[in-house]
Design goal:
alpha/beta; globular; single chain; about 10% strand
């Protein structure tokens, strides 16, 4: 029964934490993610202790807007302007991604991200309105070094966007776009 307040405690008492999986913890919300941003990601940058590099909030109550807000808060408190997550997974959270959120996400993450998993259940697949523009923003520039991409359930981007992902990510080893 992990809650948002537990995330605050984890973040404050585990300064060297590099990987956090709270998948399936239905009491985790956007507010809990903000604790991670201010206490874990940001503090680690300031203290020179490294950073959280793997975050899995799948099947929680965290939403796409909460994930982007967490990254925005981290960026606003760290002068480097990017968050060094290597793995971001939020599959099955019922989040609703759109082009604007994907653009913000692409802008906040450094080129070090290796795995994104945004798969949504069939019940929530219609809520994702990511088009080719959102995919372009996420894959922008030559900073892309994605090795794993899962966009299962996203229905509004074209085959050209899929080609763009594959062309921009020379190191890709796992690619899932089922139910598209």
């Amino acid at each position: 029964r992990l809650t948002d307040s537990a995330l605050r405690i984890i973040a404050s008492r585990c300064p060297f934490l590099s990987s956090l999986c709270v998948r399936g913890c239905r009491r985790i919300t956007d507010a809990g993610l903000l604790h991670l941003s201010s206490l874990l990601i940001v503090d680690k940058f300031y203290n020179g202790k490294g950073s959280l590099v793997e975050l899995d909030v799948g099947m929680t109550r965290a939403k796409a807007t909460g994930i982007v807000a967490m990254l925005n808060l981290a960026v606003s408190k760290f002068s480097g302007g990017k968050v060094d997550l290597k793995v971001l997974a939020c599959a099955g959270s019922g989040q609703s991604w759109d082009d604007g959120l994907m653009m913000m996400l692409g802008d906040r993450l450094s080129g070090k991200i290796k795995c994104i998993n945004f798969a949504c259940s069939n019940n929530f697949a219609g809520n994702n309105t990511v088009t080719d523009d959102g995919i372009r923003a996420l894959m922008a520039g030559d900073k892309c070094c994605l090795e794993e991409v899962c966009l299962t359930g996203f229905k509004r981007f074209s085959g050209e966007a899929v080609v763009r992902i594959l062309e921009a990510s020379a190191k890709i080893v796992k690619f899932e776009v089922g139910f598209c």
